[in-house]
DNA sequence: AAACGACTCAACCGCCGTTAT
DNA sequence: AATAACGGCGGTTGAGTCGTT
């Protein structure tokens, strides 16, 4: 049997304490970091400074006590965009993603993503979502956000099986998968969110609806997540009225300006229009997709 | 006012790679 | 080389808070 590593004193160690940290414990931990730096976590317990495991101490420091943390504010639109971007590229590599978000921890990113996934999943099942007034966003300017990795830089990490967002998403279902990577614990949505631009159902307009789109929550591109052919729909589609986020351009295609728009910013009355008809996928003039790693070989 | 549901966040657990012995 | 400890990470959970009904 191996001898314990150096620095581990013999003698009894106090029982491990779990649960919320007391202010006095934080002080002890901070003092340790000031003296030794953010390392030697296990020595905190072995020296009898705190009845906490090294892992617990490290977690406390990383997630709460680090001086450069943003606390008590929601993710800004820019931060949200960065998370969506990087999650599509890296998958659920929260620690890695957090390195691009100053002041955010992997736990922050993880919680943000989890909450977002739950909310989206619920939206897909509930016809009448309700908004809660959110906390004020910190508003990270682009000058503070770290530069995102380029496509070339990330090709080695894209194909790790954790993200499907770089696959050729020409069908509704594939695009829906891309919109919900990482939602492994959630049952698949029956159909992605549908937004239909055209004359209101039941209106007298004779103009055929030109397009139907899914909400552009794809993240990195701002492109629609999926498309369906209204002509192929067995059910009437729901109208989302043009507003601050959506409109029609000269070609009767959906015009979007989602820059700086966060999920929370979508007006509740718009969400109230969503329905979940069962629609077949159909070809749609998606913007060109970036090449997949296999394409580059 | 109370009950309920949604949401946020802190913290734990288990796994895995690295490092020291 | 084998082993154990350590540190890092992702997944998960539970408590607290807040808004709605």
TrEMBL record:
GO terms for cellular component: nucleus. Residues 13-69, 70-121 form the HTH myb-type domain. Transmembrane segments: none annotated. This is Transcription factor GAMYB. It is found in: Nucleus. Signal peptide: none annotated. PANTHER family: TRANSCRIPTION FACTOR DUO1.
């Amino acid at each position: 049997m191996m001898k314990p590593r150096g620095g581990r004193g013999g003698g009894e160690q106090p029982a491990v304490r779990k649960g919320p940290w007391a202010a006095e414990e934080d002080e002890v931990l901070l003092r340790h970091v000031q003296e030794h730096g953010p390392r030697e976590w296990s020595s905190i317990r072995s020296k009898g400074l705190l009845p906490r495991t090294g892992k617990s101490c490290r977690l406390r420091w990383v997630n709460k006590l680090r001086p450069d943390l943003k606390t008590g504010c929601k993710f800004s639109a820019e931060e949200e965009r960065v998370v969506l971007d990087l999650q599509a590229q890296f998958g659920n590599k929260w620690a890695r993603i957090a390195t691009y978000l100053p002041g955010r921890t992997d736990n922050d990113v993880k919680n943000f993503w989890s909450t977002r996934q739950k909310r989206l999943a619920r939206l897909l099942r509930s016809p009448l979502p309700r908004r809660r007034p959110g906390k004020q966003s910190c508003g990270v300017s682009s000058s503070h956000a770290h530069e995102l990795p380029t496509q070339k830089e990330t090709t080695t990490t894209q194909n790790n099986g954790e993200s499907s967002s770089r696959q050729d998403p020409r069908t509704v279902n594939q695009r829906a998968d891309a919109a919900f990577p990482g939602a492994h614990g959630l049952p698949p949505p029956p159909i992605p969110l549908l937004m239909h631009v055209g004359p209101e159902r039941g209106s007298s307009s004779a103009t055929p609806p030109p397009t139907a789109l899914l909400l552009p929550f794809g993240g990195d591109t701002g492109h629609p997540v999926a498309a369906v052919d209204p002509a192929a729909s067995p059910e009437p589609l729901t109208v989302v009225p043009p507003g601050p986020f959506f409109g029609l351009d000269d070609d009767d295609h959906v015009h979007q300006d989602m820059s700086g728009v966060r999920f929370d910013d979508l007006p509740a009355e718009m969400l109230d229009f969503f329905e979940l008809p069962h629609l077949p996928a159909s070809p749609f003039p998606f913007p060109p997709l970036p090449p997949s790693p296999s394409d580059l070989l």
